[in-house]
Amino acid sequence: MKYNFDKITERRNSGSYKWDTPERDNLLPMWVADMDFPTAPAVIDALRKRVEHGVFGYTHVPEEYYRSVIDWFHNRHSWESDRSWFIYTSGVVPAISAIIKALTEPGDKVIIQTPVYNCFFSSIRNNGCIPAHNPLIYTGDRYEIDFDGLEAAASDPKAKIMLLCNPHNPGGRVWTSGELTRIAEICLRNNVYIVSDEIHCELTYTDSGYTPYGTLPEPFRSNASVCISPSKAFNIAGLQIANIITPAPAVRRRIDRAININEVCDVNPFGIAATIAAYSYGSNWLGQLVEYLHGNYTEICDFIAKEMPSLKVMPLESTYLAWIDIRDTGMTSEAFTDMLLRHTGLMVNPGTMYGPHGEGFIRLNFACPRSMVIDAMHRLKTAIDMHFNA
């Protein structure tokens, strides 16, 4: 079956955080990381069937749920996991926060590789911990890991956890098996526990694909928890469901306790039904989605190279988030995004949202019909022309 990703779905006045915040005319929001496509038909059918049942009480998570997740990652990514390793929760961010609570004390340090997903900062801060920056090295066309800096950060006795973003948001890197192994060696040697956020793992464009941290051998695998969810790949973030996969029983018990302390131990029936359907029947839809998203990314790269050579798009290995270098404009990220919104209604994220090492960049979400991507590019060019060529 051929799916139509060109179709426009009106999201205004639907309670969409992305589209209804702020309320203004001529807004084109390309900031919040959800997609403007309906989810896979198999997921919609499963949700419709669940709605028709009509009773939405407290929910038991069935064995079919675990089997669908385990089989998906086994078949697509050769990741052998066990049912007993799973803790379900309402989202990857609550999962990360609960793990930090479980494994740290206030005042401990948590290593992050900036620029990085902004909720990492709040999860650290909300648990009374301190972010320890291990900034990525920007080579001019991609990010690399500063392993010497990571060794230094991990050797601090106050460093207890490293938050790993795999694939990386907003940098778009898919960390290789070799890179993951070096991270694992450094952290294990220094008694730093790894929490790997792998929420973007299905949105990968490279031939080599993504390597789940959980496929690393022992003892690395047991020194980590991996957080996964179908929410990004299948556009079901509002259904609020995720999994923490933790092989080490003693660590898993501590995390489970923190999940209960944080009161994020229950999930809703729609998240369960959607996950089972997505992982059981959504593969073909997802394949076409990724192909379409890559076409959107190519459209952005081609347009910017031709019409706005002062900007530079980071080569993208994963996610639907273009990371755009604006440093040659001489503007700060905040000033540039304010200019875009004020003059054209195009709403993107300033790079500083992802830490100070994001200065000089913007993040643009291109998970939408191609006509909207083209509209965004013309708005971007209008703003550039108004500001620099007037």
Largest sheet: 7 strands, mixed
- CATH homologous superfamily label of the largest domain: Type I PLP-dependent aspartate aminotransferase-like (Major domain)
Rg computed from alpha carbons, rounded to a whole number of angstroms = 21 Å
| N- to C-terminal distance | 49 Å
> What is the CATH topology assignment of the largest domain?
Aspartate Aminotransferase, domain 2
Order of helices and strands: EHHEHEHEEEHEHEEHEHHHEEHEEEH
User: How many distinct beta strands?
Assistant: 15
Number of domains: 2
Query: Average pLDDT, to the nearest integer?
Result: 97
Rough outline: globular
CATH architecture of the largest domain: 3-Layer(aba) Sandwich
Helix fraction, binned, reads: 25-40%
If strands are numbered along the chain, what order do they take across the biggest sheet?
A: 2-10-9-8-7-3-4
- Per DSSP, the total helix count is 12
What structural class do you assign from the helix and strand content? alpha/beta
| Stretches with pLDDT under 50, minimum 5 residues | none
Strand % is: 5-15%
CATH C-level class of the largest domain is Alpha Beta
Describe this protein's structure.
The chain has two domains: 28-41 and 283-388, Aspartate Aminotransferase, domain 1, CATH 3.90.1150; 55-281, Type I PLP-dependent aspartate aminotransferase-like (Major domain) (Aspartate Aminotransferase, domain 2, 3-Layer(aba) Sandwich). It has twelve helices and 15 strands. The model has no long low-confidence stretch (mean pLDDT 97). It has a seven-stranded mixed beta sheet, with helices on both faces. It starts with 27 loop residues before the first strand and ends with a helix. Helix 2 runs parallel beside helix 9 (269-281). The protein is 40% helix and 14% strand. With 390 residues, it is α/β, with parallel strands linked by helices.
